[in-house]
Amino acid sequence: MSYAAESLPAANKAYQANFGSKASCEPFSRLKCIELTQDQQGSLPLPPGKKVAIVGCMDARLDTSAATGLHEGDSHHIRNAGGRAAEALRSLVISQELLGTREIIVIHHTDCGMLTFKSERLHDLIKKRVDPAHYPAIEQLAALEFGDLDKSITDDVAFLKAHPLILKETVVSGYKYHVETGELEKVV
Amino acid sequence: MSYAAESLPAANKAYQANFGSKASCEPFSRLKCIELTQDQQGSLPLPPGKKVAIVGCMDARLDTSAATGLHEGDSHHIRNAGGRAAEALRSLVISQELLGTREIIVIHHTDCGMLTFKSERLHDLIKKRVDPAHYPAIEQLAALEFGDLDKSITDDVAFLKAHPLILKETVVSGYKYHVETGELEKVV
């Protein structure tokens, strides 16, 4: 069995039942403030209302909507292992050029798995279970791990501020999410 | 001004105030069911409790936690423009090899921006504002757009099922999220 087969249908039915109502919203949500009806939530426009794109880690303990107050309709949520900006570049260019976002919020977090290994260890683990024909593909897989959390945040913000394909007027900030308390601490 | 400077601090303070309590949870949340205290939510383990990794679009109208019932501690949330599996590969390998996930849920959605343009149009837009020295980098940027929503979902599920770096025993399913109603419709 799987989560998709066992639990997702009921969870999604509950979400649909509250779709657009206050009951599905959280403190400081834009949806709650203006008390959207189902029709209103169902016709939210494609471009993010707050003109924000979040670049955050995929980590299970981080909810980039709940922790920031950026709910349905407000912002793009781009997430990958570590919340690395370089891998988010394609999505950010589309977000800015076609959907009008002008602010980027980078979120990495305490106790991140990316602080605990090196690419070589990941490569060795995968090699144990695949045909040697795939070794070259594995060796090309850069894990984008990091050794220092604050530095990964300042590095990614600097990368975005300097990147020629990111609009010059973009406001870029970087936050450290504390998985122990829910705090978003501004780093840069 | 920016969302980060103006609104994020208060929104995050509200999140911290409810951290671990029922008040911050949603219907069918695991957190709600077991009524976590702040200490409990603050010490959730690094590996996702439901062993799931979501690959979803960055779209502002999609909340991959609320719509699936996969909340803090449950699953990885990997998101990019379109929810494309190929770009999620690095994150998925880390998710499976180092953090034990064994299920992948692909979520694309109706009214997706990726259905509305071609890479060439995106390239032309960027070229209007950057130095010609960057044209080669722009031309290498594949937007990974698609022309058919159902096909993009079945293609991405097939890509993951066939990929040598993805564990053979992985349960992979693909859903279409309806931005008009909140429904997750199973496609494959």
From TrEMBL, chains A, B:
Reactions listed under catalytic activity: hydrogencarbonate + H(+) = CO2 + H2O
Q: What class of enzyme is it?
A: lyase
Provide the function of this protein. Answer: Reversible hydration of carbon dioxide.
| Free-text remark on how the cofactor is bound | Binds 1 zinc ion per subunit.
* Organism from which the protein derives: Leucosporidium creatinivorum
Could you identify this protein by its name? Carbonic anhydrase
Q: Per its UniProt record, what InterPro entries does this chain match?
A: Carbonic_anhydrase, Carbonic_anhydrase_sf
Recite the UniProt keywords alphabetically.
Answer: Lyase, Metal-binding, Zinc
In the record, what lineage is assigned to the organism producing the protein?
Eukaryota, Fungi, Dikarya, Basidiomycota, Pucciniomycotina
EC nos: 4.2.1.1
Family note: Belongs to the beta-class carbonic anhydrase family.
| Annotated GO MF terms | carbonate dehydratase activity; zinc ion binding
Which cofactors must be present for this protein to function? Zn(2+)
Asked whether the keyword Glycoprotein is assigned, the reply is: no
Entry binding sites for Zn(2+): 57, 59, 109, 112
